[in-house]
Amino acid sequence: MKEIGAFEAKNKLAELLDLAEKGEEIIITRHGKQVARLGPVQKPFDREAARQADGGGQSAQARPDNDDPACLRHSCILGW
Fold this sequence. Notes:
Layout lengths: L1 E4 H6 L1 H9 L4 E5 L2 E6 L8 H7 L20 H5 L2
Parallel strand pairs: 1-2
Antiparallel strand pairs: 2-3
């Protein structure tokens, strides 16, 4: 993990973005105090790819709508 001051980070933003894109995490400081973290974006979870990797399991139509935040039934939490 690399640490860099805010002024230098501003001047080297393109370089820092390249590092983050490669997976490195950079801490940005102001007056020696850590104030921000710059790093790679995690790819969102692909539910359909996970189902396919699991051998398909139940069909997508047979599963409850787990993407619905209001779904708090026991079966939704367990993914039944």
